[in-house]
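Quick entry, no commentary yet.
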Amino acid sequence: MAAIAFALGSSLVWGCADFFGGVLSRRLALAGVTIVSQGAGFAALLLWLAGDGFHLDGRAFGLGLLAGIGGGVGLACFYRALAVGTMSVVSPVAACGALVPFALALATGERPSGLVVGGAVAALAGAVLASAEEHGSDEPGRRQGALLAVAAAVSLGLFVYFLGLAGKHGETLSALVGARVGSLSLLVVAALATRSRLHLTRADVPAVALLGLLDTAANGLFVLASARGYLSIVSVLGSLYPVVTVLAAHLILGERISRTQRWGVAVALAGVAVVASG
């Protein structure tokens, strides 16, 4: 139950971070939001590392580094997909990223019960439905957006998988530092290559920094979940953040939830209940 609680907690915080990040990205430069938020999370981890005597586990750090690279690539592909494609295609495809760690964990020997696997699959299907929108578009970028969404799903799935593997070693801090080094380095290189500017005012920095702290907290909760349960299951439960984002947008911004999304939320919650009971 501790693994389930930590995984759902990471999904809750990730969902809040995605909603908050989406709101900030509407009025601020994307490079500024991503790099400054990631930098704030890294600064918090450095303070934690200093208090721990700067001890790092090499294997956990290395796995976290691989996770961070996957996360950085996935984030870049996801935002680019949203820019050139349509949300109704991009979001559900990207939400399928949880299939990557789920399949890899089962292929490498994890054997949860059939009931728990069924609940996890239902929860993932619900998350995909919850992130879907009813409107579509025939614009030229639709195909490109879909392909980028697939790349984002695979990359973010690898992020979750390697972060979870790092968590299996019980070195939470080493895994988180490695992941942040990987993602932040990649985002900085990408910004320099595209000559992107941060364009943030002093008044914007606290909100963007808070976003980074939320993301780091979510990563930490997921690592704790991975250390206590099946990676195949916690990876799915940790990937239910689209449900949280949709509900937050409805409650705070008054955005309409379609019938498909309502069914998705219901199916996801039912799947979680099955996993918890199993």
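second:
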Amino acid sequence: MSEGYPGVGRVLVIIPTYNEADNVRIIVDRLRSAVPVADVLIADDHSPDGTGAIADELAAADPQVQVMHRAGKQGLGAAYLAGFAWAHERDYEAVVEMDADGSHAPEELPKLLDALASADVVLGSRWVRGGTVVNWPLHRLAISRVGNLYTRLALGMPYKDATGGYRAYRMTALDKLDISTVASQGYCFQVDLAWRAYRNGFRVAEVPITFAERERGASKMSSSIVREALWRVTVWGSQARVNGMRARLSGKRSGG
């Protein structure tokens, strides 16, 4: 059993993988060096490139590395939900989401965990002061910037980077979010959980990170992921406004 991180407790870093054979060994080695007390769960979606076999090698050599072999490519959100359940069953106090491709620097994880000591959720943010993005083409920068602006306007959340995937949660917070009803994927999965945390009044902190475009392998970003996020955020925002109007009307009736 691993030690706990000061002020946080036992930490599990969940790394979803699909065709990350070129990256998984590197990212796990960096993570184990950066935060030795953190345990690692590699959630592999039956990668045809042999990622799962490499993950098994890492687990055989290090008791703080575990592997979850999933039946097929089911998406980022489903992988994280399975990882959250795995962590809950083993009494972890905190979980971290981290990409396998190196875009999330393990060396910055202590910043997130330090912030989690006084928060329920910590978002690694590219768009707060001190955050930055390295080697992204202009169209990716535009999609992220516009997407986060639209999310803030549609949902009324104050967070600068609600779509980012480098974040940490206290398990006590996840237990209150009814994550069994989460069906969204990709960017939208991240917005969904941030939206639930905001509506529940959780303490959410944003800390600046440096996001670096992957050097090896192919990006999983697609137009369908962007469309899903746009559609779901629009629906959630509309529902929130309708519910707010109903609540105000109900209050006027009861007061009148």
